[in-house]
Amino acid sequence: MGKIKKGKKGSLKRSFLLMTLLPIFVLGVVISLFSYNRFRKAIYCEVENELKNTAYIINNTYERMYPGDYSVITKDNLTTLLKGDAFLIESLDFLENIKEDTQTEISIFYGDVRYVTTLTDSEGNSLLGTSASYIIKERVMDQDKEVFFDSVTVDDAEYAAYYMPVHNADGSTAGMLAVLRQSRKIDSLVRASVMPIIVIVVAGMIAAALFTTLYSQSIIRAFGRIRRFLISVERGELRRELDGGIVSRNDELGEMGRAAVNMQKSIRQLIEKDMLTDLYNRRYATMRLVSVIADAEAAGTGYAVSIGDIDYFKCFNDTYGHDMGDKVLIAVSSVLKNYMSGKGFASRWGGEEFLLVFEDKYAPKAEDCLNELLQSIRSIELKYEDKEPVRVSMSFGVAIKSRTRRQDYLPAMTGDGRALAGNGQNNTKADAVSADDVLKRADELLYHAKSLGKNQVVSGII
Question: Which of 56, 146, 222, 406 is the most exposed place for a label (fewest CB within 10 A)?
């Protein structure tokens, strides 16, 4: 019988809890991520509008205050940006005021180079003279479009930025106006907005997990009782009773418990027979084989054990369907049962395999018997619709144990007629074999029969 490994104990409990708690956890994570992304998108959309409005205000103010085109002049090795006749560097105080009011950074580009900016590096030095990235230049200046970037890196700092092209009177793109806000400030606002939702979700997850865990304990205990009952049935304890509390339940577990009890009763009722073929089943055949071997060893008689396998049985199922496969099994079983009557017994060993046991007087001619039996099996014809009749063949391996010689059971004698102590006992033990040994030998011979082309009998001596 199979044994339940200790390492597997409680695996159903772990799996059940995992399958109940995991969805709750996943749902909580999904809700949290969804909320975070939605809030982040909404806040970044609001930031985009604020930066856009600020950019328009600055651009419109410059157009009113400094009429004329953008240009760059160099004087005394100093390059500066003009709009009309005004030096825009002189408007830096104006931009600093906007920066303070709106929590933004502002840059004015001529081409892709910053000529006016409120940005400074980590040491407080102005970022005048630095350039915009190629992607920004291409999308804003080359395509002459206003663009919002939710992530722009400037001097190793992350910003959300709104860029708009600035034009001269002839419509040409002179440069860009950029309004930026640090991403860490925006993300901090997102986290602050989402945190209450996450707290509520986590609290709900904990409450649901506690409720699910407590409720599942009764289900797990019921499963445990059914499991122990089924293990006892597997071990052959067919008189053990299932907890009445399980059987009386009005839910699926109760149905499962009642089904297990009915299964136990059916096993008791059908302990000896295979339901499909009406042959002895493997359990009973094994017990009977052990008895046959023990009796033969004690009496010094012979026996033969054969394992037969229907050739190409999978093809019957694949080609004609499982109903035809069942018909083949029933037809073969009927031939085996009739033929083995009076010679021994036949059983269904498993799937399309059968065990045949020949008792004493038929053991020496077991190979001839099986060849005769094989002829009967080859004559089986099963009709399938309007096609050619389905024919069957089998392969057999038979292990033959001959009678034990009488002198092996008698103690060896000395010249004066005295027995040598222990001699007969040792000879008897030397000839003894177990049911496992016999079955292994028969199975090896069956494998040999199949390797030789199937549809034949291969015999061997134990």
Answer: 406
